[in-house]
Structures are given as C-alpha cells and as structure tokens.
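Appendix B. Raw example, untouched.
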Amino acid sequence: MSRTSRSTLAATALCLATLLGVSSVEAYTYRACDGNRIRWDRQWDNRWISTTSFPPGSAWDARYQNAMWHWNNVRGSAFNFFVMRDTDGTHNESNGRSEVYLDNSITLPTLAVTLVRYHCYWFFGLHYGIDEADMGFNNNIGWNLGQLNYSNLGLPVSFEGVALHELGHALGLKHEDRWLATMNSNYPAAGPLGHWREWDPSGDDREGSRLLYPDGIGEVDIAGSVFRSIGGGSSALVTSPASAARGSTINIQFTFSNLSTTTQTFNIGFYLSSNDFISKFDRLIGTNTGAWGSPGFTGTFTRSLTIPGDIAPGQYWLGFIVDNSETTGEANETNNNMEMPRPIQIN
C-alpha cells in the first residue's frame, strides 16, 4: 500500500510525523519497511521546481539548486537530485512528480513541508520504496536569500538552509534531534559551516545519505561551526565573552563536524584577529593537538584562552581553524576557518 508522511521544519516548535516504522543507526533516522530501508530505488530524483514560485535564474532558483548541489556532492553517497521545470503553476501530491513550490496554506511555526509518498506492501514478495516527495515553502513569511545573519536567527528565514533540510527528507532521512544535525526539526538546525556560512549537510546527515545510497567513494573534510545543540532538536550560537581585559583568561565554545568517511585526527588553532576572517597570519593564542572525530561526529567543546597582555586595546575577533596545520588533505579547505559570532572588546 502507499503511504504519505508529512515532515515539517518549525521555527520554534517540535513537530514529528507518525510513520510506518523508524530505524536508527548511530543517529540519523529513516523510514523502514519490515526492517528494510525505504529509499529511492533508482538513487536519484527529478525536482520539478515551480517556475511561478521560483523563476529560472532568480535568487530563489539559485539558492534551491545550491542546496541540491551540496547533497549531490556528499562523497560516499550515490544519490543525486536533478532540476526539472514545472510551468503550469499547480501541484499534485500523487502524480509521481516531486514538485517544489511556495505554499500559501502553511502558517507559522511551520516553515516548510515535505510530503514523502512511499509504498510498503507484500505481494508475492516485499515491495517498498519512495515514489514522490513534494515540497512546499511557507509563502506567508519573510525569506532571506542571502547569508545567514548571526545577530538575527529569526525572521527573515534562510531559504537555502530550509531547502537543505527539506531535501534531506526528500532523499529519505527523517528528523534527528539528539544532537546537532541538518535534520534537526527546528530552524536553523545545524546552521551553516565555516566563515563563508556555507549550508552543507553535517557529518551525521552525510552518514545517513551514505547508508541509504552507498557508493564506496571516500571523502576527507572537517568543518568549523558556531552552532551548538541545546536539546530537543534546537540549536543556538556558541558562547564567547563580549569583553575582556588584557592578560585575562576567558572561555569560548567551538564546534567542529567530521564530514569525512573515515576517522580524522587533526590540530585546532585558536586565534585573535583584528577582523572577522580568522587566518594563520593572526595571533595564535592556543592549540589543541590530536583532536579527532569519527565519521559523522559533530561536537561542541569549551576552551580556555589567555588574552595577550601586549596587544593594544580595541575591538577584535576570537576564532579557530580546524586542521590549521593542513595535514589531513581535505577536499574542502574553505570551511575550516571560523570566527566567533560576535566581536570582543579588549581593554
């Protein structure tokens, strides 16, 4: 028989769907049929993007396709999304096409809804799989089509961030609320990674996609983040002081995610910078040697740092660089640098 599950991303409230069955391995969750993972048998899906809601070439279209690109480029997973154009301005939940559109019927706190139609039945053998995954975005709220603003995690909402989450549902993943993950049920979920605020599936989400659609390709990548889990699928920014005296010792929180297919060991450098781009040319004020993370690991830690006593008073930025010695040979080096989400005034 065919079933439809409704998965939503909420602004503040927790909202989970009732399903046929849920299996869990480590963290990420997925639908199951008699213990079998429900997924796309063909390992790909055409996304029929409404040209009425998201005109080709528009910022909407570019952000949605960028979110697709990030899922498509998870090494170790063979799954791919493809772009199609839906030009008739309508959508249907059971026409066999995965349609993407702005939806006027959605109200807060729900930001978006993904309706996954799948089957699980016995007919001379067990038959199961995803058939369709329609996606509606709340057209009654303000959307941000640019970078996420750390000083305002409410409205307007990052369209690309929500799209990344909903696409995770479309490929077969469910909510994961036990720790930081793109598939957390509350916005902004895991948040973007690195200084450039790149919306990318976190380590846990990548492991889920690899489990559903394994291809055996390896990936090495470690990323920094300024988000932390606060429980119940919610996240918040890491903490750091707004001010400090020269020579004093302060504490900061920092988060890193191992996006790799294997366990990685690396160093982390902590820096003080005159601007918000943390680089190895800035003042090194601490090092964690031999940090490590298993595949899919994302964690938040606290580090004590001493403010140098010989610097001039003024506004600075604290931050860190994962793998600052560049010994792991990462596929992506642009997500390692991470400044704290607020400057620090040093007196």
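End of appendix B.
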